[in-house]
Amino acid sequence: MTNEKREQNDQKVTVVALLMVCAMMISILAACGGGKNNEAGSSSSPPASGSSTQSASPSESSEAPKDITLQFWTISLSPNFDDYINGRIKKFQDENPGVTVKWTDLPYDAMEQKLLVSIAGGNAPDVVNLNTGMTMTLAGKNALVDMNAEATEEQRSIYFETLYNSAKLGDGVYAFPWYYGLSAFMYNKEIYEKAGLDPNKPPTTWEELRQHAVTIKEKTGKYGFVPTYNPPADLYFSGVPVISEDKKKIVINTPEALEWVKWNKALYDEGIVPKESLSADANYATDKYQSGQIATLTTGAAFLSRVKTNAKKIYDNTLVAEMPVLKSGKYHAGLMNLVVPVKSENHPEAIALANFMTNDESQLEFCKIVNILPSTKKAAADPFFTQGGDDAESKAKIITVKQAAKAQDFTLGVKDEGKILEPLWKNWQKMLLGDITPEEYLSQSESAAQKILDEVNAAK
Amino acid sequence: MFTNKLMRRQAIFAYLILIPGIIMLLIFTFYPIVRGLPLAFTDYSVVDTTHWTGWKNFKRAFSDPIFGAALKNSLIYIVVVPFLQIISILMAILVNNKLRFVQFFRVAYFVPVVTSMVAAAIAWKWVYEEQGILNYFLMEFGILDEPISFMVETKLALMGVMIVTVWKGLGFYMMIYLAGLQSIPTEMQEAARIDGANRWRVIWHITIPLLMPFVLLCSLLSVMGAIQVFDEVFVMHGSLGDPAYSTLTTSVYSYRIAFTDFEFGYSAALGLLVAIIITIISIAMFRFTRKGGLTYYE
Amino acid sequence: MSDASVSRASRRPIRSEKWSGKKVLQAIILYPLLLLTTVITLGPFLWLLSTALKTGENVYAYPPQFIPNPITFQNFIDVFNIMPLWDYIGNTVVMTTLGVLLNLSLCALTAYPLARLRFPGRNAIFFTMVSTMILPNAAGMIVNFLTIQSLGLYNSLMGVVLPSAISIFNVFLLRQAFITVPNDMELSARIDGAGEFRIFASIMVPMIRPAIATVVIFDFMAFWNSLIWPVIVLDDKAKYPLGPALRYLNSNLAFNFPYIAAGTIISVIPIIVIFLILQRQFINGMVGAVKG
């Protein structure tokens, strides 16, 4: 490198370096300036106020002190359901002058973190969309409003009682049930025919389902179905109490339980279901079904729309029947709920919004755009659910609604439910893998869960 | 040459340009740690009232079999370090050649680093599944008669995640080594080669020793990264480390304890215990390598 | 194989030919190696690319279809239609530029004294920094959120960028690079009477250009791909960067794998472009400069 060149380079680099430092200084100044601006902005609202006023523009809150802004958080509904949610919010705002709803939709896995951090920052949202597990954990930490105590009888009465009570902890109920999905039995006609089975005779019991699966495996080499295990709920719906009436004893080591566990173990060992069923979820099952690798789809009917977009041929070949029922005669409903955090500043308005979003009209409209089921009695009775075309989706809708009367979510109704039930999940995998026997599964899980339950009860 | 005056001038200059960085570190790195440490002795849950609990969290950690399993997996994970370092050094040397299309290869090796973990996980699951591409090839070539579920076998699942870590990390370390190689004066290598030393001798006797500061830095970083591995496990096997805790690592466990069970206090205690283990390993590495990559410029 | 190359080369009398002969052999050995590595590193990514270009039915076909037939760009078009992707890309560019500039300047300024200047407290500062890489940060997200909130930066771009304005990893990397700069360059500059800042800016920084390029790439990548923190700090979805926005494609009620694949490709392309640009500007420039 010549000297001249180096000189030039040096100059260039000096300039770049100076620019960098300047940029840094400017950005730091901007940061401080921004801070001041924002502080000035929020100082016009009362300092004690939490989320609601902070997000309201200062002019609004100073001119009309009655005005309220509600923060409404949902999980993964945008952008697919933007129009629906915005439409409902507009209607709510029209009916409740002075109330503004600020909707934030969060990606699925960001919800818990954002929620916790916001609560820590005194910036709690007013209405939040949570699944039952998360609802119960938060309720156990006294973070949610008890609907039995603060909502009106009128607000509470619109829901199916079983669904409403799935968020019950002690005497309190900490959520309004929103939408849920039920499994329907969806199956590939072509594979059924290839296996020499009559597509017009879908299985009506789990044992029949097993026999079909065996035939399908033998004749076509494909799997009959993918079980998406939920051991606590599966046991419960097989007629195992799981927890005693007084919520003090874990009861899973029963003959019914052993039968169910052994039945599953045999399925797994004989290779009638894929090895990956161990940790399979509905996504996995749907992917395999729509690639034609599996004969039946036993997940929520909402997944059928995915099959329709991704694999039209398979969809056109899909027949729908009622899901075989477990011993209890009930179906498991995986619920989405709306909750109101205790830290919300506007309990009555927030409860009203949660109630509005889950009322008959809102839910019916929601169900019309996506294949889910309503948690309110009147909405479920709407003729929409009993009429429809001949395509698989309409049939699935009609069938799941028929099943809805037997639907229930499963919860223990005690604090720290997730922790108590964890041994049932983890030992289930160990049992399928052959590390422990079905008998050991039940006895070990029972004692492990009992130990955690005792700790939880003692901590009260 | 080095007068007192110069020393003082240097010191003042040093402090001056350190200020902005140190301030940011104080606010966003030191402060959270200082605030977070005492939590290990409480039952802080963010939402509920907090109590002082003394050593309870630590006692619980020592009798927590799940933490034990997670710790074991985290330590096993260190196995990725030699693979990561050796292969990435070789890759860096490979693409440091003046070859046609070398740009393309550099990009190709770097792509895994920039691919989001969510997408990479989907791709790798597709590789590992029972009806996945790996089984497809193994059976086509007659190596296997029956497919293996790489995602489900407890003995293979962790290894599968480790392969993803290596796959995703190679390009990253390759870049660091490449930067290191570029700053080694090429004259030295060429002189040696002209003197008749063959390629591998040049690499072994000249390139590697000069890269040593980078090697030690990268090894230390990747050991820390391995023990604290999170993303790969979380997106491929969930917060429970399926199957049957066989892929659960300490970071994933303490994340779950904090954000799903809301036990930040216990989570902080677990973090502290892991930190102590990392410190011990780091000190051992220092001792072992003597003049490690973190020694001072003199 | 290297032995063979040496013996074969030594038989050649003329120097230039010896080198070219070696080069051919080198190419024969190297290219297969390079290609094999490419297959492994690029494989999963190519599969995502091929998925993004497939029509719905072929995505889930088994046995898998490797080369899409027919090829469609519909998935890309759809992704741009279902969300205001250009806005998110704009946000990401602003956030990333700001973040990279801040991070690079702060890290370089912090790394240099730790590498090459003598001053009391250097060891202490350095070891404190090392320790932060090890110490647990269980409540880090919460504490940083509270700090950002009290600075009045909630729901602002600055709030997203500031906590990562300096990263100890990059400080390490740059420090390591500063250390490798030969002493004589510094000495001769001192003899010429250059001041401290001039030595830093016009001797040291240019010497570590490869490391700087690396840091810029890593930074760019980190900011471009940041997922959780922007969601925590930002309240308006309209302000989101690309990463979190693309995660909406992964929603439960409407999961569409080709969209996710297309989204991934879209988000990776800018990083590759930056990578290529920096490669040319820094690394090749450096090699050329030293040789010239």
UniProtKB/TrEMBL annotation, chain A:
Bilayer-spanning residue ranges: 12-31
A Pfam short name: SBP_bac_8
Record flagged with keyword Hydrolase: no
Signal peptide residues on this chain, from the entry's feature table: none
Region described as Disordered: spans on this chain: 36-64
Keywords: Membrane, Transmembrane, Transmembrane helix
Compositionally biased tracts (Low complexity): 39-62
Name of the protein: Sugar ABC transporter substrate-binding protein
Automatic annotation (TrEMBL), chain C:
UniProt organism field: Cohnella kolymensis
Subcellular location(s) of the protein: Cell membrane
Chain segments annotated as transmembrane: 28-49, 88-112, 124-147, 153-174, 211-233, 253-278
Domain named ABC transmembrane type-1: residues: 89-278
InterPro entries: MetI-like, MetI-like_sf
Membrane topology qualifier: Multi-pass membrane protein
Keywords of this entry: Cell membrane, Membrane, Transmembrane, Transmembrane helix, Transport
CDD domains (alphabetical): TM_PBP2
Family membership: Belongs to the binding-protein-dependent transport system permease family.
UniProt name for this protein: Sugar ABC transporter permease
Gene3D superfamilies with a match to the protein in the record: MetI-like (1.10.3720.10)
Main location: membrane
